[in-house]
TrEMBL record:
InterPro entries: MUC16, SEA_dom, SEA_dom_sf
Protein name (Swiss-Prot/TrEMBL): MUC16 protein
One Pfam short name: SEA
PANTHER family, alphabetized: MUCIN-16
PROSITE patterns the record matches: SEA
Domain annotation SEA: ranges: 5-130
Gene that encodes the chain: Muc16_5
Amino acid sequence: TTAATLERFTVNFTITNLPYTSDLENPDSAKFRATRRVMNTLLDDLLKESSIGPVFQGCEVTDFREGPVFFRPGSDRDQTRVDAVCTYSKEPGAAPLDRVGLYHQVSNKTRGITQLGPYSLDKDSLYVNG
C-alpha cells in the first residue's frame, strides 16, 4: 500500500475588527505570536468540523498584512489580512480537495463569512487555495 501524502492549501481572509499594527509584521513580536496562536486555534477548530475533518492536520498562519489586498496600502489600517497554510492527509486515489465545497462549509460555519470567534470578517474576503 502507498502511504498518504500531506497536501497543503491556503486560506485567506480579512478581519475588520483587528487593527493592523506594525508588530503584526514581525513574527518575533508578542502580538504576532499571540494573534497567530488564536487564529491557528480558530481555523483548526473550524476545519476539524468540516468534511475534511478526518484527514485535517492543522493550519499555520504565515502572514498578517494591512487591510484587504485590493485596497491601496494605508487606506484601511483598521483591517488585517490573514494568510494561512493548512495541511491534510491525502490517501492515494482519494479525490482532490473540494475547494468550492470547503469554501461553502467555511462560509456556513462563519455565519456567511462574517464571524470567526471574536473576530468580524469582511464577507467578500475569503479565499480557499487562492
